[in-house]
Amino acid sequence: MCHFPPGTSKWNKIEHRLFSFITMNWRRHQLIAYETVVNLINSVKTGKGLMVRAELDANEYEKGIKV
Description:
The protein is built from two helices and no strands. It is mainly α. The chain has helices at residues 13-25, 34-42. It is extended.
């Protein structure tokens, strides 16, 4: 089984191309805070110019609500 982040699709090739660049970018970094992860994701850029935009959602949401 494979889980994709919310809002992504297994058929969207652009997202798949970016995942490997995100992984390469945060090697040798300690992922100890959410802000660190978001900053590392935001600094990703591919050789062809694709860029990633990420932001931390600090809101708290009720558990158990079905959408």
